[in-house]
Amino acid sequence: MSAAPIELALGPCLFNWPADRMTDFYARIADEAPVERVYVGEVVCGKRMPFTDPIWADVIERLTGAGKTVVFSSLAQPSSKRDRNALTLQAGYDLPIEINDMCMLPACTGRPFTAGPFLNCYNEVCLSFLAARGATDWCPPVELPLSSIRTIAALVPEVGIELFAFGRLPLALSSRCYHARSHGLSKDSCQFVCDKDPDGMDVTTVDGQRFLATNGIQTLSDSCQVAALAPDHLRSLGISRLRLSPHSTDMVRVASLFRQCLDREIAPDELEARLEETGLPAPICNAYLNGDAGWKKETLSL
Amino acid sequence: MTNTPLLELVCPAGTPSSLRTAVDAGAHAVYCGFNDETNARNFPGLNFSPDELRDGIAYAHKAGAKVLVAINTFATAGATETWRKAVDRAVTSGADAIIAADIAVLDHCATHHPKQRLHLSVQAAANTPEAIEFYAQTFGVKRVVLPRVLSVSEIAALNAEISVETEVFVFGGLCVMTEGRCALSSYATGKSPNLTGVCSPPDHVSYCEDPSGNLLTRLGGFTIDSFPQGEPAGYPTLCKGQFTARGKTSHLFEDPVSLNAADLLPDLARAGVTALKIEGRQRGKAYIGQVVRAFRSAVDALAAGADTLPDMAALKGLSEGGRQTAGSYRKTWR
């Protein structure tokens, strides 16, 4: 068993943050966050791309200059001609890439890529197939339990496994924009109202229970996933990296706490307690990892 | 309206008797699955044993109809043999096509049964020419079932760019989220289409009354909808419930409607679609018979060059709650 340290990655920002906020955010990540890898790029909605496209070159330079591995994460549900052209361009970038839709596979076959959590990769046969075409890293779909991840890791050891460890869980994509719908608009004339909710729009049940969050065409969990696992435990499962999904809370602090846990300075339960103090968007959940309903908070059994 | 090729009508069969009903009612093809987790309608009392499938295929073939076998969930890690065996059984039973989504299933079929016709399940969510051509070239997929995210004009543009047939849903339950890319059900219950072949499973449904006497329908510990006393309560399908956002309570994701694209059949034909799919493997024989007969008369009329389609008003009464939508086929739905 390799004793290599477990790495930390900052996932792509799923939300519609203004370009200047995004620039400031990544500058601080470059300077202060103890993460080895940073994913950039728009993953959720192609309509947002014109706002952030101009910032990526500088953001990437800044992060690379700070020693981070920068990965360009691609759209999870390309649909328009413009989306597809953007993906063709991205496939040609001289930069590691994350694939979130199978349409990117032909253009990227033969070059190393990360298989993102939006791909339907649920078993070792699928991951081996992707590895044969260039996948070096894989972030499993969020509903996949640790038992399956461990099985796959043992059977496909050549692929590094990155667990979605922090943030609201990306649960669903649609062609309909729920932000637009909730504001009485349609997707084509959405006025980019998703920018009003930097962590997604809270969705509760009719009797007031917290439940989900919407982010344009995406639906996320209300609860905030926290995979608080000790480094030896992660290693025994075959997990080599944790993905932290950006939220408006202090992500430098979040990354530092995960780093302390991986360095055995704080225990997993203390990691949870300290994260709650940082002001999470919602209560902690983790039960997908046990193969149970994702919203629950349980003792991780594996 | 002339020279419209006959659209293939693909009809659901949750049981051997509904397969016979669909075939008798004029289905060109029926689709069904084995009674296990390998298909995306893994509900108790539904689906086929290997013997029932063989008999069903014999019945359909005698009437000139095809049988498409859905093995369209994602194989469980470490247990992919169950899915491989399901493919082997479907092939030896004489299935006209296998409908699959998982690369593990597609790869097994293409490698070990290269002559078996393969259709790409809607659960694969392939909605661009690049994705579709990937599956066509890698696994020899001959037809793709399109996710319900495209408008009719987008389907036409897509068909102009791809080398395989397309099949679209025209009637029945409507997924609001992109098929194959939705984990809402497992978030609430631990079970989902991709993991276990079910959505909003009945064993996680409960009903209770709130202090004002309203009936609350619940799924996995979350209230999905609320109905005033005396009103009929709908099934708590997660994405069709009422929720509160921005201080407003509404059917945030979708109203409790179902899909009816009967009015769009000529447009879909012009868009180059090969086959029309009716959802509803969980539906009874009477429903299947009525829907299949109505659509068969419509596609026959269309192929014969009729200027108007037969009156399909009877279909209105066959939807849950009676309310229908053309979904994403009209761009304004988004």
TrEMBL record, chain A:
Stated role: Required for O(2)-independent ubiquinone (coenzyme Q) biosynthesis. Together with UbiU, is essential for the C6-hydroxylation reaction in the oxygen-independent ubiquinone biosynthesis pathway.
Species per Swiss-Prot/TrEMBL record: Roseibium aggregatum
Binding site for [4Fe-4S] cluster: C45, C177, C190, C194
Pathway assigned to this chain's UniProt record: Cofactor biosynthesis; ubiquinone biosynthesis
Pfam family, one: Peptidase_U32
InterPro entries hit by this protein: Peptidase_U32, RNA/ubiquinone_mod_enzymes, UbiV
The protein, known as: Ubiquinone biosynthesis protein UbiV
Family: Belongs to the peptidase U32 family. UbiV subfamily.
Alphabetical GO biological process terms: ubiquinone biosynthetic process
Essential cofactor(s): [4Fe-4S] cluster
Keywords on record: 4Fe-4S, Iron, Iron-sulfur, Metal-binding, Ubiquinone biosynthesis
GO molecular function: 4 iron, 4 sulfur cluster binding; metal ion binding
Subunit and partners: Forms a heterodimer with UbiU.
TrEMBL record, chain B:
Residues the entry annotates as binding [4Fe-4S] cluster: C175, C182, C199, C239
Keyword Metal-binding: yes
Short name of one Pfam family: Peptidase_U32
InterPro entries (alphabetical): Peptidase_U32, RNA/ubiquinone_mod_enzymes, UbiU
The protein's required cofactors: [4Fe-4S] cluster
Superkingdom, natural source: Bacteria
Any GO BP: ubiquinone biosynthetic process
GO molecular function: 4 iron, 4 sulfur cluster binding; metal ion binding
Keyword Translocase in annotation: no
UniProt keyword list: 4Fe-4S, Iron, Iron-sulfur, Metal-binding, Ubiquinone biosynthesis
Pathway: Cofactor biosynthesis; ubiquinone biosynthesis
PANTHER family membership: PEPTIDASE U32 FAMILY, UBIQUINONE BIOSYNTHESIS PROTEIN UBIU
Similarity comment: family membership: Belongs to the peptidase U32 family. UbiU subfamily.
Function description: Required for O(2)-independent ubiquinone (coenzyme Q) biosynthesis. Together with UbiV, is essential for the C6-hydroxylation reaction in the oxygen-independent ubiquinone biosynthesis pathway.
Subunit: Forms a heterodimer with UbiV.
HAMAP family: UbiU
Protein name: Ubiquinone biosynthesis protein UbiU
